[in-house]
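Hey, resending since the last one bounced:
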Amino acid sequence: MARQPLAERRAATRAKIAALKAEIAKMDAIAAERIGRLAVRAGLADLALDDDALLREFEAIAARHTAGAAAQAK
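The C-alpha cells again:
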C-alpha cells in the first residue's frame, strides 16, 4: 500500500483537529447552558452584579471545590 503524500496526511490531520475543536465547542455550550440554567434557578440573574464581580464569585466557588477535591485525593 502506497503511503499518502504529506499534503494529504496534513489535510486529514487538520480535519481531525477541526472536528475535535467543534466537539469541544459543543461540550462547552452544553456546560454553559446547564450552568446558566442553575444560576438562574439560584437567583443569580436577579443580582445587581457586574460580569467581573460575578466571575470572581464563580472563580471562588471553583477554587473552593477544586481545593476540596485535592484534599480528598490525599
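The chain has two domains: 1-42, 48-74.

Sorry for the duplicate.
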